[in-house]
Write the structure tokens for this entry.
Amino acid sequence: MKFIQRLLARGKLRDAARRVAEEPSARHYSELVQLYAAQDQLDAALQTAAEGLSLHPRDPELRRLHERSLRIKRDGRTRELLVALRETPRPALYRELVELMLEDGRAAQAEELCGEWIAKQDGAQARYWRARARCTRYFADRLREDGRMALEWLLEAERAAPGDEGVLRLSLDLHARLGAWTQARRALARLLELHPGDLALEARFRSISALATQPSDPQACLREIEKSGRFADEDQESGGASTAIRPVLQALARERGVKAAFFVRGSTALVQGPRGYTAERTARGVSEILQVSRSAARRLGLGQPLEVRLEGDYGALAALPSEQGSGVVWLDTPALTKRMEDGLRELSGLASTSGERSIR
Amino acid sequence: MKHYLDSLLHTPGVRAAGFVAADGLGIAWSERAARSGEEPLDTEGLAALAGSWLAELTRCGAPLGWSAPQRCVLRATRGTLILAQGPEVVLVVLLDGGMSHEDLRLPMESALARLQRHLRNLGSGEAREQGAPLPHRTNTPLSPALRAPTNAELASEERKAGQTAPSGE
């Protein structure tokens, strides 16, 4: 029976590969990836997805399949590592597993594993990875308590391994995000001692030195970030350039039942649909809704918001907030089609913006 | 009220469900922790924060001419919060991370409809006979002897008094 199934699957794979060769569209690539995945040929699925993404980098289905294949592969390796750790716990295995968990977005589990690692074999590496896991949690949720613990554990890691490059880079990353420029400059100076003449580090040192005019208190920075929901380096990033957002917004606004589509980042927004003062007023309202929802998610301990939906007599509002920017759509009815969801996901994934209308 | 909430807890992934007043005061809660032995939630805090989020959303929508939202969903990395506006109360449901909020649409609507029916029955006086714990407004009109006269009735009485009063001159 299995032999027949394999034979049939081989035929399907051959057909799908031929279709890709004839017409290398995103849909054909997706079909081929799915067939490989169904046959447990994960490496082939990953390779095909990567090949498809190089031709269609913005296709959401291919991106989803690529991420899913990666995740399945990581899950397999995680299981192997868990078994190996039970038999022979070694720092290298712990390190790989923690790294995998962090890549997978399971920072809390990674931190738990680091706790176990410290209990069994305390050392500088274990403390560094624990600090890194907590930093990842803080970067995702922006809770003050997470930030406080991240700073504390980072200090412990620094004491355990003074001058370790990984620890210094983590310290630089955390303090630069917090806006604690004096501490960030100190970490950079020590990194420059390790890598004298590194052009990227030197350029960063100059820009951070310009900001570190007066001493900064990391605790005050944590409070400020919890209040505003924005890291210090995000303020500097805004105002970049992209022409990719407008077409996605236009496509969203053309969908049946869509009243308006927005791309919101910080205090700026791009609007498609309403015009003039109405556009400005609606964008301001939508931006405030996102802001209060972010703040509510943090206060409720739910972490970083992924989706906000409102329904009322005005229709429905669906938003996908992200660190880079939020895609929002205002509809007649609550039902969101797959195309709309893909559009919103694409908007939220777009990193840079240009020509945004200031709404403050 | 609690048994309307208990039915929601049968849906997989629901951590807690509760009725919250418009001012963010918890009225009744049903928690999964009570059954599974998990760490209990701070339901009072949850009710206050959910109420404050709803109030803030209403405030944000007011300049656009939007009335208070009927259903709000906040999906985040560690869970999902769903609010549904009911008759004078808000139904709040907290879901585990990764659960679909759409699965709860029908059960929540059903819980609210049952609550509404219960309140209607209270109003019609059926529940009073069963010993309802709280005072409530009835829809049946009071007899004229028990209620204060209306302005129209006062005016007509004055007119009648004017017609029957003997003239002084």
Q: What stands out?
A: The radius of gyration of chain B is 24 Å.
